[in-house]
Amino acid sequence: MAHKFRQELRLAVGTPIPALVMQNEFTTEGVLFDVGENSMGIVVVGHFKDRGLKECVVEICDNTSPCCFRGELRYVAETDYGLRLGISLYDENDQPLLVYLDSIGANIK
Fold this sequence. Notes:
The protein has one helix at residues 97-103; strands at residues 11-23, 26-35, 39-44, 55-60, 67-79, 82-89. It is mainly beta. Strands 1-2-3-6-5-4 form a 6-stranded antiparallel barrel. A hairpin with a 3-residue loop joins β2 (26-35) and β3. The protein starts with 10 loop residues before the first strand and ends in a 6-residue tail after the last helix.
């Protein structure tokens, strides 16, 4: 996964939101860093090993209303602040990501 691939405009999350990225039995902690209509960027807080698995579930860990989104890991990139995961979301999720973030009062810029 060496190439970064972005199809849409991303908006910054003003106050990063804790998230869990789950791939089969592996779970990684991170923070939601930026979002798009059908995608999200997560900066990994702990250890992450790219196991070649594409499908993942991301749980947004809001205290009052946590929510899970299914998607596909598109890239892993090293940055100055840690590993960044680029995830494209599947259309089959219960609600759109931006609608959910608005409902929990997330600060999207």
